[in-house]
Here is the input.
Amino acid sequence: MLTVSDLHKTYETGDEALGGVSMEVSGNEIVAIVGPSGAGKSTLIRCINRLTEPTAGEVWLDDTEITGLDTAELRKARRDMGMIFQEFNLVERLTVMENVLSGRLGYTSNWKALRRKFAGEDVQRAYEILDRVGLGGYDNSRADELSGGQRQRVGIARAVIQRPKILLVDEPTSSLDPETSRSVMELLTDIATDDDIPVLINIHEIDLAIDYADRIVGLSDGEIVFEGPPEALDEEGRDVIYRGGESRVGRAAPDETTDSLTTEKRE
Amino acid sequence: MAAESDDREWRRFSPTQRALRALGVGLAVAAFVVSWRALDINYEYAATAPRETYDLLSRMYPPDLGYVTEILPPLIETIHISILGTAFAVLISLPIAFLAAENTSPNRATYYLGKFIVSFTRSVNVIIWALIFVVLFGSGALAGVLAIAVRSIGFTAKLIAEGIEEIDHGQVEAIRATGASPFQVLMYAIAPQIKPAFVGVSTYRWDINVRASTIIGFVGAGGIGVALTTSINSFAWDNVLTILIAILGVVVFSEVFSAYMRRKVR
Amino acid sequence: MSLEEQTSTEYGSWERPSAFYNKYIKWVIYGLIVVFVVWSMWDIRISFARFVAGIDAAVDLVQNMVPPELTPRKRELLVEGLVESINMSIVATVIGILISLPVGFLAAENLMPSSVYYASRGVISISRSFHELIVAIVAVKAVGFGPLAGVIALSFKTIGFFGKLLAEELEDIDSGQLDAIRAVGGSRFQVLLYGVLPQVLPRIVGLSIYRWDINIRHSTVVGIVGAGGIGVTLLNSFQKYDYDFSLTIILAIVAIVLVGEAVSAIVRRRVQ
Ligand SMILES: Nc1ncnc2c1ncn2[C@@H]1O[C@H](COP(=O)(O)OP(=O)(O)OP(=O)(O)O)[C@@H](O)[C@H]1O
Ligand SMILES: [Mg+2]
Here is the structure.
């Protein structure tokens, strides 16, 4: 179970990205974090495995306080958290197999890693997982030869082979077309059920969130402004998340409003 | 098509441009004339140059093929010098490259230090480095290796630094997020990204260095250049041609090999 | 080891594909490279003691070199040498380019019959393969010591460089414009003049300045084999153990090279 309590992040530039976020994720639920651009979604996810250092607050994974670990312990803890990125972040010049196996680096000695000698069991599982994400036979292709959807599947395989206790997913579909997006979301929900792990997922497309998530968390300006099942996310909820609770009455077309607000936030 | 080029012609010959072009040509001609006169070249020599050259060539031909066995050792030494010089250059230039890359240099001062080393080593010709190292280490291949190495540092460090500056940080983060150790991050995320630059630069520089190591012997820094000087000074022109052909062979081989390696590692 | 090997075949194993057909060839190539480097070290007899001796000598040399020296007499020598180098670079650039214009045209595959093409390419390759100092040392023997040998060497090197780039430039030109001139009944020469030249002229100017920059660099060293310029002065200072002056000369050369580089960069940006 992941517990986040009163998490703060202020960047060196003075941007306050998180202003005290608390939440829990457990079982095999899919939790979708939605919110306008700049709301702090990525910051939240990255503070959980401390790719970004939070300024205050605590993150617990089961009985481990992630925020209290030193570098070596943090490395061990990161093995239990699989991360999936918007831009896939595959090592482009390595093969698909190496990319997947790099998920086991935390369990492999430096010397063996250097010689690409992973445990036989890891290699076996890598093949199985590649089959499972629909990339059987691509093991020797180079990552930069794949399409966007295929790359994201490799990214998912790399996270899954870690046998993580939770998946942290940052906008997995933003670089993909709608159809591929849906198949990636389906894959993620399948993994949650099959491997019995929770998935915390940042997502821009609210429709995808409603279709696939068990619970939706609305983030705005670094604070949680909505929390509930997808059915509860009505017009009013959306207003709160995307427009700071202001009514749409007297405004131009809704899409435009969102856009202009987004631009303001960025500035 | 024709209309388009007419249009261009028209602009090309607009009055200001015409004046500028005339000025450019005039300057070039003036510079040439002034320089030529200042050089104070003995016209008798200049006039006999073609005949002398022809004479030289006819004395060179046919090459003395029996001499090949004698020049084999210095030829091999030449290749050794080029390989070692390049290897040292690449090793030394790795840390310098990290200094001279904006995203890895510890601070502004180290960044400019890196840039300074790069441009200074590049501005001094290899033969001058060879003169210096012959003073330090005595004549022989060691001086040659060091001259080649130092001369190459600027070039290799600059290009490797550019490779480092282009690293995609996302790939590094992704590997770190799996719980990999710093060494593993280096091997799995950073090394693959700078490998093409690294291989490309080393083989390309080696190719250049093969040429350079044929001449450092002129100042006593080892290699085939020593044999060439000896043959020339003793007017053994048929041997000279043999050496020139041998050099041509080595140079062509290195060019083909380095192009092959660069193609293999993308 | 063997146990580990067994388990890996039992559970499944994977081998990284290699760019070199298979891993054995890959290891052979890497092995050869390593063997060659070790052999080189052994052949050249690089020893720690020699290194240490060299470092000692370096301290001496640096002490001898600093401060760089410049008496009026030496300033005269320095300026004389530098001016000669620059003059050589200018003359050689002009002559070299004048010769390489026809060579470049003759080496353009799309404009020339193949026999002419191969002959010209041969000239270009030979020029490119030999280091400028080799050309210079031969030229010195042919025409004697002095700047004439330097001019010949630099011009010869310019032909290879310029001829090749010009030929490539010509091979890339838009053949539609050639056809247009041919279509109105232009002769072969008119095709060159009206169809080809305008397309490549800006590049020619840019490349000329670039080559001049390179020739400045080379003109400072051909003197080391007796082909005129500041290199002669530098070699003399080394032979007389006048290392203070050597440092002065080297710094002057670096300055000239950097100035030449900057000027050429600025002019090229203006032209293009
Ligand atoms: N490295 C950084 N340095 C300084 N400020 C940052 C940094 N990363 C993010 N921020 C700021 O923190 C705030 C939250 O950014 P974050 O990337 O978490 O938002 P997001 O909700 O993921 O947005 P998006 O939907 O565009 O991905 C923004 O105001 C952003 O400008
Ligand atoms: Mg984001």
Q: What stands out?
A: Chain A touches chain C at residues 95, 97-98, 101, 116-121, 123-124, 126-127, 139-140 (CB under 8 Å).
